[in-house]
Design goal:
CATH topology: Maltoporin, Chain A
Strand content: over 45%
Structural class: mainly beta
Shape: globular
Number of domains: 1
Number of strands: 36
CATH class: Mainly Beta
CATH superfamily: TonB-dependent receptor, beta-barrel domain
Number of helices: 5
CATH architecture: Beta Barrel
């Protein structure tokens, strides 16, 4: 009887489970031709106390370097052996990026995981739907939505320790608190207000004896308002303010004492506003997502040559308007077509550079379409293309072909795909002090073959994907004492690998998840990428109590640093490491007051994510959440 109940529950859940990443509209996951990693609100609740980077780094094929270091440490996104610039990040359907950066990338430290509702990660070249940067993957983040009650709220406070393996402190140095109020007034109007603040201290970013502790602080403010104009028309508007401020240390140069620096500070402020609208008609849907953001960064850093403090100011703006529609020709065939406009500009001011917005801007206008066929006999085909029209370098054509087949008499789905992607040169690379206006986009292409199967009466889901990625026309840096600038290199880099994931509902109360990733990239671009990576996760949930334990193995990685003694780049190999973590939560008052406690790196494993930088040792965290 119990097994039958589990099977019925699982079947119902699988029928309801939808993804949006591979068509931009809700699609039953069983009809998708991609293996899309989904982190739900329930998954996030089991991992209270972890950061967004921690959670993402537990997915197959995803390595977020810096997630185990000091909170202010910059993050590296290595999806399938790629780098930050090869990952597109969307928040509530709108692309986010820092237009003033050397590469067009987004700083995930700006986002509080406490404001996140759901995350989808789609790996592989995805520029057909998502444009520039979607070369190795797309991270689709959905922020929390209003409840259906007239008024509901959440107030929480977390405190934790901040230790390396060399320290054992029991007082709180990791503080996180916040509140939200939301609801639906009448069927037409919804609202949400959320404020979060976190502060971390007591740990030096650089690794060394008696180094001064660094400080990281973040504020997140979110406001959402939704209005249903008619039964078939919905409009949502939002505004976000995100601010991080931290001290940081110098890069390791072979002499650890040179790294510690109490004068280095960084401040980043982001404003985001936008509108999400949707119109539903008999044959489909039309959506218009529009957003604008601005980021200002101010960095004060010690000049090691003069001993003075240099100030660097960066300003970036990004506007995106994406209109797209889904039209159903038949129950099995529909078309997604749209056009996306993006405008970016930047400014940089320091004692060496005076770059104004009027001289550093570009726009993109990209029409695209995706044709989707879902046969009742199990054949699914996703065929799409995109025309990238850039104000600086001209036009280029992207495409994707993604067939899959689900057997009717076997719990087996086979998938395959071939897709292309592009990464536009950044404003800094085109117009900055080392800019080159002749740059053209980096090109990527990915081929995939995989399968997904279910067994034990649908209680267990197993998938595996093999991929091969080719990268060409990469943007590099040409150095010459008289004239240095960015160039398109004629090198070609390849990456290949295998990813497999298992999700097993062992009993109604016990769920086991696991994944393994094998990633092989060429030596020239192999920095900080583990060849082997394993994640295991077990959750026991019964009534008010939830217990979660996790294990992670990260293989050895190559790293490099500039040695100030030899005036040459030195390569090193960082040893493999493994982490054990545990989390317990309990509703003291049912659905009202919840307590949680967690312990990370239980066995106090000593390791480094990056040469010369500290990593967290054994730490504990406690928290209370009040719901109303």
């Amino acid at each position: 009887m119990l097994q039958a109940q589990i099977q019925d529950s699982l079947s119902s859940t699988q029928l309801r489970e939808v993804v949006v990443s591979d068509t931009k509209f809700a699609l039953n996951k069983q009809k998708s031709g991609k293996i899309i990693e989904v982190i739900t609100a329930q998954d996030l609740a089991k991992k209270q106390g972890q950061s967004l980077a921690n959670v993402l780094s537990q997915l197959a094929g995803v390595e977020i370097n810096g997630n185990q270091s000091f909170a202010g440490k910059n993050l590296g996104y290595y999806i399938r052996g790629g780098r930050n610039r090869q990952t597109a990040i969307y928040i509530d359907g709108i692309p986010v990026t820092d237009a003033s950066g050397i590469n067009l990338e987004y700083d995930l430290r700006l986002i509080s995981v406490d404001q996140v509702e759901k995350i989808e990660v789609m790996k592989g070249a995805s520029s057909t739907l998502y444009g520039t940067g979607a070369a190795t993957g797309v991270i689709n983040i959905t922020l929390k939505k209003s409840s259906q009650k007239k008024i509901s709220g959440r107030v929480f406070s977390h405190i934790g320790t901040q230790n390396t393996t060399e320290t054992t402190k029991y007082y709180p140095e990791d503080l996180n608190q916040g509140f939200s109020i939301d609801g639906t007034i009448l069927p037409e109007f919804s609202y949400m207000t959320a404020v979060n603040h976190s502060k971390t201290m007591g740990m030096s970013e650089a690794s060394g004896d008696q180094f001064e502790p660094d400080v990281f602080s973040r504020w997140n403010v979110m406001q959402k308002i939704g209005y249903k104009l008619r039964p078939d028309v919905r409009l949502d508007v939002f505004g976000n303010y995100d601010r991080i401020q931290n001290t940081f240390d110098n890069s390791f140069d072979g002499v650890s004492v040179n790294a510690d620096d109490s004068n280095n500070t960084s401040l980043s402020e982001q404003y985001r506003v936008g509108m999400l609208s949707k119109y539903t008609f008999t044959q489909g849907e039309f959506a218009l997502n529009a957003g604008a953001s601005s980021i200002e960064r101010v960095i004060n850093q010690t000049n090691t040559w003069t001993g003075s403090i240099d100030k660097f100011s960066y300003y970036g703006r990004n506007v995106s308007v994406d209109g797209f529609a889904k039209y159903k020709f038949t129950p099995a065939l529909f078309l997604v077509s749209g056009i996306q406009y993006q405008f970016l500009d930047m400014a940089q001011l320091d004692q060496y550079t005076d770059l104004r917005r009027t001289a550093s801007k570009f726009n993109l206008l990209d029409p695209y379409f995706t044709l989707v066929y879902n046969s009742v006999k199990g054949l699914n085909i996703n065929l799409g293309s995109r025309l990238n029209i850039h104000s600086e370098y001209g036009n280029q054509f992207l495409y994707t072909l993604n067939p899959s087949f689900a057997f009717s008499k076997l719990p087996l789905k086979l998938i395959g795909s071939y897709s292309t992607a592009y990464i536009t040169p950044s404003l800094y690379q085109l117009y900055g002090p080392y800019g080159n206006r002749l740059l053209t986009p980096e090109k990527n292409a990915t081929a995939e073959l995989g399968m997904e199967t279910r067994f034990f009466s649908n209680a267990c889901t197993l998938n595996a994907v093999g991929f091969y990625r080719a990268e060409s026309n990469t943007i590099g840096f040409y150095y010459n004492p008289d004239d240095s600038f960015y160039i398109n290199t004629n090198q070609r880099f390849n990456a290949r690998g295998v990813e497999t994931s298992l999700r097993y509902q062992l009993t109604k109360a016990v769920q086991v998840n696991g994944n393994y990733s094998y990633t092989q990239v060429e030596q020239a671009v192999n920095r900080l990428i583990p060849k082997h990576k394993v994640n295991l996760d077990c959750t026991y949930q019964l009534n008010r109590l939830t217990l979660n334990g996790s294990y992670q193995y990260v293989d050895q990685r190559a790293d490099a640093y500039y040695d100030s003694n030899s005036f040459a780049t030195t390569t090193v190999e960082l040893p493999a490491y493994q982490l054990f973590n545990a989390n317990v939560s309990y509703f003291i008052l049912p659905k009202q007051l919840q307590f949680f406690a967690s312990i990370s790196n239980i066995f106090d494993e000593q390791f480094q994510e990056v040469i010369g930088y500290s990593a967290r040792g054994r730490n504990t965290k406690l928290g209370l959440t009040f719901l109303f």
